């Protein structure tokens, strides 16, 4: 089987809560059968600190392009802060490669 890169933004009071919601949403949209190429295939994440003045989305793309966060690894996670969510929840970017 192959792999596909994914980039998913999710909101939550914590990174763990946002990750759980992102996985559940992906499973709802793509099924529970596996090999979706989405965050639905991930069971854990690793919080990444973005270097000063670096765009978090471009940094995530760089890490994925370099082959980090492979299909058998944890997803990467970058805290984006509070981004105007109507509930005031923190936003997190999850990224990596997932089995497809």
Keywords:
100 residues; alpha+beta; 26% helix; 31% strand
Walkthrough of the structure:
The chain is of the alpha+beta class and 100 residues long. It has one domain (3-99). The protein is 26% helix and 31% strand. The protein contains 2 helices and 4 strands; from the N terminus they run βαβαββ. Strands 1-4-3-2 form a 4-stranded mixed β-sheet. A hairpin with a 7-residue loop joins strand 3 (75-82) and strand 4. The longest helix is centred in the N-terminal third of the chain and has 16 residues, at 15-30. The N and C termini lie close together (6 Å).
Q: What are the SSEs and their pairings?
A:
Blueprint: E1 3-12, H1 15-30, E2 45-47, H2 56-65, E3 75-82, E4 90-99
Radius of gyration, in Å, reads: 13 Å
Name the quaternary structure: single chain
Strands across the major sheet, in which order? Answer: 1-4-3-2
Instruction: Enumerate the spans where pLDDT stays under 50 for 5 or more consecutive residues.
Output: none
Distance between the ends: 6 Å
Basic shape: globular
Short description:
With 100 residues, the chain is of the alpha+beta class.
